[in-house]
Amino acid sequence: MQSLKKIKCLIIDDEPPAQVVLKKYIEQVNALELAGACDNAMDAISFLQSEPVELLFLDIEMPGLLGTNFIRTINNPPKVIFTTAYREYAVEGFELNAVDYLLKPISFDRFITAVNKVLQLNFQPINKNLQGNEPTNEQGHPFLYLRADRKMVKILFDEILFIESLKDYIKIVTIHKTIVSRQSISSLENMLPKDTFLRIHRSYIISINKIDSFNGETIDIAKNELPIGRLFKHDVSNQLSK
């Protein structure tokens, strides 16, 4: 069976502790492959000439050449996630089409949010019959990674029944298992394709394809009766009447 193509990435940071943290995080994500690490932008230029990569974890305040200026020197640069201790570069970073902008110290949860954004930019081979840019496994099924039980868990979109908010956590109920992850339901909503998932309540997102029955007040999925929130009724009605 063909293995999932990994995203080759390069760390560019003059702070050894920051490199250690990013290396540790990258090792925990199966979709990423660390190609190397450089202490400054000039070394990175030489590295990229011999070994192209698809993603940079790039510091900004570095000796010799700022990370933002370094990106401007590259024709067709890789995707970039800026990693910096300085908020004032955020606007400039996004003007350079950065995927994300992480402030140090970087938490693992925030790192994963950034990586999921990269995964959605179609680095992974996808089935041409699928809509959207979600990464897919070798069978063409879109997925994302979430942190649960101190590890990264791959969740296939087509196995999700519904998602429930539990204050600072979310519960993802799938066909085979239930996963609890420390994340907001709104952040996860932004990662899901709008044509197959629907927010029906402040506390619930459902997979449209898994609906067994519904009325104006509730939706039934796999013997679970889920409420439709008052503020969501109009959108739910419009979506389900298509």
Walk me through this protein's architecture.
The protein has helices at residues 16-27, 41-50, 67-72, 90-95, 108-119, 185-189, 233-240; strands spanning 7-12, 32-38, 55-58, 79-84, 100-103, 143-148, 151-156, 160-166, 169-174, 178-181, 197-201, 204-207, 213-214, 218-221, 224-227. The protein is of the alpha/beta class and 242 residues long. The chain folds into two domains: 7-119, Response regulator (Rossmann fold, 3-Layer(aba) Sandwich); 143-240, OB fold (Dihydrolipoamide Acetyltransferase, E2P). The strands form four sheets. A five-stranded parallel beta sheet has the order 2-1-3-4-5. The protein has a five-stranded antiparallel beta sheet with strand order 10-9-8-12-11. The protein has a three-stranded antiparallel beta sheet with strand order 13-14-15, with no helix packed on it. A hairpin with a 3-residue loop joins β13 (213-214) and β14. 32% of the residues are buried.
Q: State the major sheet.
A: 5 strands, parallel
CATH class of the largest domain: Alpha Beta
Structural class: alpha/beta
| H and E order | EHEHEHEHEHEEEEEHEEEEEH
The amount of helix comes to 10-25%
- The number of distinct structural domains comes to 2
Which characteristics define this entry?
alpha/beta; five-stranded antiparallel β-sheet; 15 strands; Rossmann fold; OB fold (Dihydrolipoamide Acetyltransferase, E2P); five-stranded parallel β-sheet; elongated; about 240 residues; 7 helices
Helix-strand blueprint:
Blueprint: E1 7-12, H1 16-27, E2 32-38, H2 41-50, E3 55-58, H3 67-72, E4 79-84, H4 90-95, E5 100-103, H5 108-119, E6 143-148, E7 151-156, E8 160-166, E9 169-174, E10 178-181, H6 185-189, E11 197-201, E12 204-207, E13 213-214, E14 218-221, E15 224-227, H7 233-240
Parallel strand pairs: 1-2, 1-3, 3-4, 4-5
Antiparallel strand pairs: 6-7, 8-9, 8-12, 9-10, 11-12, 13-14, 14-15
